[in-house]
Amino acid sequence: MYGVFIIMLFYALGNAISWIINDSFPGSVIGMILLFLALQLKIVKPEKIKSTVNFLMKNMALFYVPVGVGIVANYHLFEGNFWAIISSVLLSTIIVLLATGYLQQTIERWKK
Question: Which residue, of 30, 42, 43, 60, has the greatest Cβ tally within 10 A?
C-alpha cells in the first residue's frame, strides 16, 4: 500500500502544481518528474514502490482500453481530419525516434 500512496501522492502534487500554474502543463507529467527527482535524490527508496510499479507495468494495457473506447464512441469527431491525424502521429513518432536515437548516441559517446 505504501507504493500506491507514494505514486498517488506525487500524482496529486503534480496536479496541484499544474492547477497553480493555470494548467499550462499536465499534472501527471509534473508528478512523474517530481517522483523521478525524489528517486534520484534518494527521498523515495525504489524498493518501497517496486511491487506497485511492477503491477502497474504488467497491467498497462488495461489503461488503454478507455482511450480506445472513447475514440470509437467519438469517431465522428475524427472523420474529417483522418489524414491530418495520421500524418501528425507518424511525423511525431519519427521525430521522437530520431531524437531518442541521437540522444542515445550522444550519451554513448560521452561515456567513452
Answer: 30
What is the extent of the structural domain holding 92? 71-112
The pLDDT value given to residue 87: 95
Rounded Cα gap, residues 111 and 7, in angstroms: 32
CA distance 28 to 41: 20
- 34: helix, coil or strand? helix
Q: What letter does residue 44 receive in the DSSP assignment?
A: S
> 50-75, pLDDT tens digit by residue?
999 999 999 988 888 888 898 889 88
23: left (phi over 0), alpha (psi -120 to 50) or beta: left
Alpha carbon distance 49, 10 (integer Å): 12
Other beta carbons within 10 Å of 6: 20
Low-confidence stretches of the chain (pLDDT beneath 50): none
The pTM assigned to this predicted structure is 0.64
